[in-house]
Amino acid sequence: ETDRLTRLVNDVLDLSRLESNKRYHFEAIDLTQPIEQTLRTHQLNARDKAIELVQDVELHLPTVLGNYDLLLQVLNNLLGNALKFTQAGGRIAIRAYAMGCEPEHPHLATCVRVEVSDTGIGIDAEDQACIFDRFFRVENRVHTLEGTGLGLSIVRNIIEKHHSRVHLVSEVGVGTTFWFDLPVFQKDTPLLDGALNNGKTTDSPAPPSL
Ligand code: ATP
Ligand code: MG
Predict the structure, then answer these.
(1) Segment 182-191, tens digit of pLDDT
(2) How do residues 58-79 score in pLDDT, each as one tens digit?
(3) What's the gap in Å between 44 CA and the centre of ligand 2?
(4) Distance from the CA of 158 to the center of ligand 1, in angstroms?
(5) Cα(115)–Cα(96) distance, integer angstroms
(6) Its Gene Ontology molecular function terms (predicted)?
(7) Which of 2, 10, 68, 85 has the fewest C-beta atoms under 10 angstroms from its C-beta?
(8) Which of helix, strand or coil describes residue 126?
(9) What is the DSSP letter of 168?
(10) C-alpha angle 163/20/14, rounded to 5°?
(11) Ligand 1: which atom is nearest the Cα of residue 175?
(12) Angstrom distance (rounded) from CA 124 to CA 121
C-alpha cells in the first residue's frame, strides 16, 4: 500500500511538473541507451511472466534531440504497461529506426521512430480515445491489475514536450503498438551548438592501417 501511494504521489508530481512551464535540458541522445536500460529494468519481471522481450534497434541509430530522463520514463511506462497487459507466453518488442518525417516535423529531414509493441489483450477503438486521459483505466477482466491510470498521461506529456505525438495501433485479443517519432539531432541546432562538441569530435577515428 505504501509503495502504491508513493508511486501515485510521484506520478502526480511528475505530471504537474510537466504541465508547468519548467524547462528541461535537451541534448543529443542515442536512444539505444535508454532502450537497453529499460529492457534491463524489466528483464526479471518478463522472465517471471514467461514473456519474451525483444530489442530491435537499428545499428548506428542517429541521435535525437531530447531529455534522457524523460525519454527513459516514457520507455519504462510503455514497457511496464506492455508487461502488465500481456499474458504468459507473449512477446514484447522495442524497435527504433531512422525514417523520413511525418507532417509533425516538416522542416527536418529524418526522425527516429520508436515502437513498443506487445501481443497482449489489446484496446478497443472506443477506449483508445480515452487511455491518455488522467486516471482512465479500461474496465476489463483484468481490472485487478494495479495502477492508477497516470502512466500514459505522463507519456503523452513528455512526448509533447519533445514537440511530437504518441500514436497507437491496437486490436483486442491481438496486441498493441505504441509509437512516436523524435527529430534527429542536427549538428547546427543553434541551442546546442558548441555545448555539445566541447572537446569532442563527432568524426569517427580513421581506420587502422594494415
Ligand atoms: P499506472 O500507469 O498509473 O500504473 P495504468 O497502467 O492502469 O496505471 P496507464 O498506463 O495510463 O495506466 O494506461 C491506461 C489504461 O490503458 C490501462 O489501465 C489499460 O486499460 C490501457 N492500456 C495501456 N497500455 C496497454 C497495453 N499495452 N495493452 C492493453 N491495454 C493497455
Ligand atoms: Mg501504466
Answers:
(1) 999 877 655 5
(2) 998 999 999 999 999 999 999 9
(3) 18
(4) 16
(5) 6
(6) ATP binding; phosphorelay response regulator activity; phosphorelay sensor kinase activity; protein kinase activator activity
(7) 2
(8) helix
(9) E
(10) 85
(11) 28
(12) 10
